[in-house]
Amino acid sequence: MEELISVIVPVYGAEKYLKVCVDSIRQQTYQNLEIILVDDASPDGSGAMCDGFAKEDSRITVIHREKNGGISAARNSGLAIAKGAYIGFADCDDDMHPRNFEILAKLLEEHQVDIVVADYEEIEDADMDHEDAEIVYDKIQVTGYTGVECMNHLLTVNNVKTILPWNKLYKRKVFDAGHRFPEGINGEDDFCIPHLLCEAEKVIYTDVSLYYWRKRPSSYSRSFKLSRTSYLYVLEEREAFLKDKISDELKHRFLVHYMEILWDFYYLVKHHYPEEKERIRGYRCKFQKKYEENKAIWQIPLKKKLKWDVFRKAIWISDIWYAIDQVKRKTIRKIKGIDNYYN
Predict the structure, then answer these.
(1) Cβ distance 102 to 30 under 8 Å?
(2) Residues sharing a CB contact under 8 Å with residue 97, sequence separation 6 or more, in sequence order
(3) 86-89 and 5-11: which strand pairing?
(4) How far apart are the C-alpha atoms of 242 and 253, rounded to whole Å?
(5) Do residues 163 and 246 lie in contact, with contact meaning Cβ atoms separated by under 8 Å?
(6) How many Cβ atoms from other residues are within 10 Å of residue 138's Cβ?
(7) Burial of 157 from C-beta contacts in 10 A (0-12 / 13-18 / 19+)
(8) Residue 183: which of 309, 332, 72 has the closest Cα?
(9) Residue 202 backbone dihedrals phi, psi, to 5 degrees
(10) Using CA atoms, how far apart are residues 207 and 157, in angstroms rounded to an integer?
């Protein structure tokens, strides 16, 4: 008998995409699903659409949150009522291969693992009817890891974007340990997924793409607000949590990423919120302290090192560097027709 899979979908401002998303879940070849749509006080007609879907399909449960709490709060609301032995996620503007849960569940059971990680495909905003690849299950190749090995190997060798919730299927037990998505901060996936992976005894990965991530020009990931700087807390917490668990290579990669985020936030806040002078100074102080603590281990390209040294020692030159860099980025985006984030 097929185990019940609880699929949790936070819903906010997605009436243009929601039917495609929900239909892709309802039409899964794996039918034993509990589909939990969490209307996070959406300002458009998404909430009413959720109610309509529930009338059409008894597998759908709708939660209407009274106040918008963000994607973490919505996911946690779904987890609070989920009954499935397995847990899956989807974002309300994405969709998936019709065999997504069939394949993930079969891999989970066949290999007796706690989490299955699959690859995913990026699709354009207007792509509402793409062709699904034909998948031969017996030809699917997998690689097995412990949860900690998954963190080390997938991020450094295959460069798979492991820190995502929706390209996976989880046994419920990894959530029963008490792990939830942190509310009120940015970067919830970077915070929660390492804890879930490290909770797992066994993880497998396949490079078969089963999920379609939609690149939306107006999505949350493409705007900058001061609240986004809470991502620094996430990176700091992740560094502390994984300190004794991950390879030196991955530690170094995380450190470099942290430095680049500090550099970005310094200028983003300076540009969008110039009145936040204390915060702006604080980012540069953090940068300088982190640099001094790790200067003996940096293995970075000369250009990046030069950029960092200029930022530390000659801020006015760094300001010019940043301005030139922004012109270059905007020119490249215009040529390629990309509406990238933070504009």
Answers:
(1) yes
(2) 103, 132, 133, 135, 209, 210, 211, 212
(3) parallel
(4) 13
(5) no
(6) 4
(7) exposed
(8) 72
(9) -135, 140
(10) 13
* Dist. CA 118–CA 108, nearest whole Å: 11
Instruction: Write down the pLDDT at residue 161.
Output: 73
Ranges under pLDDT 70 in the chain: 159-160, 217-223, 333, 336-343
Q: How far apart are CA 321 and CA 323, in angstroms?
A: 6
How many alpha carbons lie under 13 Å from residue 171 in its C-beta half-sphere? 19
Q: How far apart are CA 144 and CA 337, in angstroms?
A: 39
Q: What is the pTM of this model?
A: 0.89
Residues 6+ apart with CB under 8 A from 303: none
Domains of the chain: 5-215 (3.90.550.10), 221-336 (no CATH)
Alpha carbons 298 and 67: distance in angstroms, whole number = 45
Residue 229 DSSP symbol: G
Q: Give the whole-angstrom CA distance, residue 134 versus residue 287.
A: 48
Cβ atoms of residues 119 and 206 within 8 Å? yes
State the sign of the Cα–Cα–Cα–Cα dihedral 13, 15, 17, 23: positive
Task: Give the chain's length.
Answer: 343
Distance, in Å, from the CA atom of 340 to the CA atom of 165, rounded to the nearest integer, reads: 22
Burial class (CB in 10 A: 0-12, 13-18, 19+), 122: exposed
How far apart (Å, rounded) are the C-alpha atoms in residues 234 and 17?
A: 29
Residues with Cβ < 8 Å from 340, sequence gap 6 or more?
222, 329, 333
Q: Spell out the residues 6+ positions from residue 186 whose beta carbon is closer than 8 angstroms to its own.
A: 227, 228, 229, 230, 231, 234
Residue closest to 158 by CA, chosen among 204, 113, 112, 189: 204
